[in-house]
Design goal:
By secondary structure, this protein is α/β, with parallel strands linked by helices. The protein has helices at residues 3-15, 18-25, 29-43, 59-88, 102-116, 129-137, 176-183, 191-194, 205-208, 233-241, 288-299; strands at residues 48-50, 55-57, 91-97, 120-126, 143-147, 157-165, 167-172, 188-189, 199-201, 212-213, 216-217, 228-229, 246-250, 260-265, 271-278. α1 packs across α4 and α5 packs across α11.
Amino acid sequence: MTTSQLECFISLAGTLNYMKTAEQLGLTQPAVSKQIQSLETELNCKLLSRTTRSVTLTKAGTAFLTDANTIIDTFYHSKERISNYQQRDLHSLKIGYMDPHTIYLISQILKPLFVLKPNVIPEFTQDQTDANLSRLANSQLDLIVGMKDAKFKDSNIHFTKLYDEELYCVINKDHILAKELKAHRKKTVTTKDLWEYRQIISVPPYLIRNLFSKRRYIIPVNEEVDNAICANATEAYSLLLANYGYALLAGYEILQHKNLVTFKWEESPQAPFGIYSKSTVLKDKSSMEYEFIQIAATLV
């Protein structure tokens, strides 16, 4: 499949006229016909129905038109971007992350980095840590910001620990537990305090797999109440604002909101939070990755 084939098809889908398409593209009508025929042969389906009086898109042609436009747009966008990189000496910094709330920390790191490296263009990939680690190993990412995966081992990849992350209890100010804690002037909460209330379960993925480990809960889960399970912290916040229950969230997921309060959970487990990178970049103090990690270390 070539760009010439796709451009002929996209133009013809708009004009529905071989002569007009030939004029638009500076080709002959036989040349346009040849491009369309070769594309149909490659896709093994008819894209256009042609009679002596009219040209119409088939159902397959209508379905393929969106894909054809996407492919062409991506091609020219990529071509323009690569050209800009060469002309302006731009450098991409491909950053992986898992939870959307990590973006705030990343933005705080990038701000001073742009001063040091004004030609840096960040590119982001949101995915599970194990998938991003595979991308990092294959040089599809430069850095990953998030929790450490205890099972991952690769001598070529280094984890720079920034701090030990904990879980905090977040709850609506109107919740009965929040009012009780406020009345007793408590700034921390225990599992016993939480036990009788509904929980909005949203924990970092490094803990989800081991939510139940040998019948020992890593987080308190009272199965006698109607708990809610959320895929991420954003969903949890929607239920927190609706005063459904409490949530145990990682520190980097905590958002300031006038209707919510946060308490330190006394029995919280800890896990390292930091940045994955190739081991080699730590030896190059002029690299963008090294600068990014150094700035991050000063911010947390």
